[in-house]
Amino acid sequence: EAGVAQSPRYKIIEKRQSVAFWCNPISGHATLYWYQQILGQGPKLLIQFQNNGVVDDSQLPKDRFSAERLKGVDSTLKIQPAKLEDSAVYLCASSLGSSPSAEAFFGQGTRLTVV
Amino acid sequence: EDQVTQSPEALRLQEGESSSLNCSYTVSGLRGLFWYRQDPGKGPEFLFTLYSAGEEKEKERLKATLTKKESFLHITAPKPEDSATYLCAVQEQVNTNAGKSTFGDGTTLTVKP
Q1: Cα–Cα distance for residue pair A51/B75, rounded to 1 Å
Q2: What are the distances in angstroms from CA B110 to CA A10, B13, B73?
């Protein structure tokens, strides 16, 4: 079974530039998550999708971050404009559903450095 | 606000030296508590889900337990390959159809041969 695919693996941009990350979840997984993980901290949920709909985006900085999940499959996360504090690993995860019994599978993440 | 606190931040053990990692949590409406393992440069890897106080789960040298306020991850006779960051997460009810997970900052375990 193919895992969660993310691209790119690494990205370096200057502050105020824009950047986009892509995620392809495991086939058939209805729930998709984007997390931000700052070095030395645990992952922080940015947005959670159930199929096409947003379940929770309470911690997404909506003035600069946006995310979409077209056709309930792939997803993109965009930052525009980027700030220095956005430097982090952006993790995508997917699961069959959002119940605790639905194991979440994580991708390897995209490491973003903002200079 | 939901909180998940893990301790210690870092733990160094000799091979074979058993120990425990702690995860304390405050959440309303706990749906489940998760343990993950994260290796450098990789995403977290699922280990266990615990649902109610008194529950225990085991996998190889790892055993997870849950009370109403905390969870422990016991590591028996660890090996160097157990070195990783161990993350705890709790899931609360968001609505009738979804839960939301909050992670702790993890415990970084180093096992020396």
Answers
A1: 38
A2: 26, 6, 15
The verdict on a CB contact (< 8 Å) between B43 and A91 is yes
Interchain pair A100, B51: CB under 8 A: yes
Q: Would you say residue B96 has pLDDT above 70?
A: no
Model confidence over B32-79: pLDDT tens digits? 999 999 999 999 999 999 999 999 999 999 999 999 999 999 999 999
Q: Is A104's Cβ below 8 Å from some Cβ in B?
A: yes
Q: What is the pLDDT of residue A27?
A: 94
Residues in chain B within 8 Å Cβ distance of A105 = 46
Quick check: A55 and B41 CB within 8 A? Answer: no
Per residue, what are the HEC states of B28-66?
A: CCEEEEEEEEECCCCCCEEEEEECCCCCEEEECCEEEEE
Q: Are B103 and A43 within 8 A, CB to CB? A: yes
Q: Are A21 and A110 in contact (CB under 8 A)?
A: yes
Residue B8: asked if its preceding bond is cis (omega within 30°), the reply is yes
Is A102 an interface residue toward B (CB < 8 Å)? no
* DSSP, residue by residue, A6-24: EE-SEEEE-TT--EEEEEE
Strands A10-13, A110-114: parallel, antiparallel or unpaired by DSSP?
parallel
- The Cα–Cα gap between B90 and B3 comes to 9
Round to whole Å and give the CA distance between A109 and B100: 20
Walk along chain A (115 residues) in steps of 10 and give the mean pLDDT of each run. Answer: 92 98 95 96 94 90 95 94 98 88 91 98
